[in-house]
Amino acid sequence: MDPKHTVRSFSRVSLAILAVLSFGVIFTNLLNSRVLAGEPGFADMRGTLEKETLDLINHDRIAPNYLGETRGRARPLLWDDRLAAVARAHSEEMARNGYFSHQSGGESPADRLSAAGILWTRVGENIANCETVTQAESTFMDEPRFERNHRWDILNPDYTRVGVGIARGDDGMLHITEDFAQLR
């Protein structure tokens, strides 16, 4: 085969691959800039991220390596739309106002759930400000065992329901709120 022909063919293929890759990068950057700007699109992604967080939580609750903490009593949590609405409102407020706290206008997580008309006997809340939901879950689960912390909320067998709310801040970070409850 003629080396010049091979080089030309390779160059055409390389240019085609480069064009496809460049379009992919440009399209991804465009999509991310729209999501970061708060345009439609994040709402669809948010639901997926919230359900992914539920899956991560439930995976940890039934994982064999955490049986020492759960004594096998932790069951997968059920999704609760009311808890999710409260969690989402808290995440959106933190993202909008640029703060990171369980307190919101002087209200605790328990106060927010009660104000929403949710009757509960136990309540807990985890909040995170991370790039991904996987990073948030890993951070929570890396906390010390057998202590009342985020990890304890995730593995607590007394909780039966959860709602997750996620908002994206201007800096691109995810504000994640997980509201856990045992309902009356």
Considering the chains and any ligands shown, give keywords for the structure.
184 residues, single chain, 7 helices, 4 strands, disordered N terminus, alpha+beta
Kindly describe this structure.
This protein has 184 residues and is of the alpha+beta class. The protein is 53% helix and 17% strand. It is built from 7 helices and 4 strands; from the N terminus they run H-H-H-E-H-H-E-H-H-E-E. It has helices at residues 3-36, 42-62, 67-70, 81-97, 109-115, 133-141, 150-155; strands spanning 78-79, 120-130, 161-168, 174-183. Strands 1-3-4-2 form a 4-stranded mixed β-sheet, sandwiched between helices. Strand 3 (161-168) and strand 4 form a beta hairpin. Helix 2 runs parallel beside helix 6 (133-141).
Explain the layout of strands and helices.
Elements: H1 3-36, H2 42-62, H3 67-70, E1 78-79, H4 81-97, H5 109-115, E2 120-130, H6 133-141, H7 150-155, E3 161-168, E4 174-183
Parallel strand pairs: 1-3
Antiparallel strand pairs: 2-4, 3-4
